[in-house]
Design goal:
This protein is an alpha+beta fold. It has one domain. Helices cover 26% and strands 26% of the residues. It has a six-stranded antiparallel β-sheet. A hairpin with a 7-residue loop joins strand 4 and strand 5. Helix 1 packs across helix 2. InterPro entries: DUF2272. Pfam families: DUF2272. It comes from Caballeronia sordidicola.
């Protein structure tokens, strides 16, 4: 696994500091690059907050292929990125819009579906329990993130 994590860093032009350094944002950046986004189209970063900040700036200016929205205003679709708090933080979209550096996590939506009356977005993310992992994010009946615990910060729409 370490050689693959090293590849994520190196393919983005970053120095690999070792697996003790959080690598989830590098994984997301690597996936977006592998999908065809250039560095101009997506801000490859070592921290999720950096590419989210750029996506919010793009949205405000009406430019770029990456846009960011508050979770209550945009229903995630496959290929989008869902950003959430970690370590007990309670950052929101307004905070993300005015801060380039803060601790967070994000994962790529690979499926949106339903099981009976329950809707979900299935995500894949890096450094989830020290591995690449899948999670389900609950959605409401309209397809927006069901954020009862206020842990989600933004949804990035990736238009490749």
């Amino acid at each position: 696994m370490m050689s693959q994590i090293n590849r994520y860093w190196k393919d983005l032009g970053f120095h690999f500091p070792g697996v003790q350094t959080p690598w989830s944002a590098v994984f997301v950046s690597w996936c977006v690059k592998t999908a065809g986004a250039t560095e101009v189209e997506f801000a490859y970063a070592k921290a999720h907050s950096e590419f989210v900040y750029q996506a919010i700036a793009n949205t405000k200016k009406g430019v770029g292929l990456t846009k960011a929205f508050p979770p209550a205003e945009y229903a995630p679709q496959p290929g989008d990125i869902i950003q959430n708090n970690r370590s007990g933080n309670d950052y929101d979209f307004a905070f993300a819009a005015s801060h380039r550096s803060y601790e967070s996590h994000s994962a790529i939506v690979v499926e949106v579906g339903s099981r009976g009356t329950e809707r979900y977005a299935k995500t894949i993310g890096g450094n989830e329990s020290d591995s690449v992992g899948m999670k389900e994010v609950p959605l409401d009946k309209e397809g927006f993130i069901n954020d009862v615990h206020k842990i989600y910060i933004s949804v990035l729409q990736i238009n490749l």
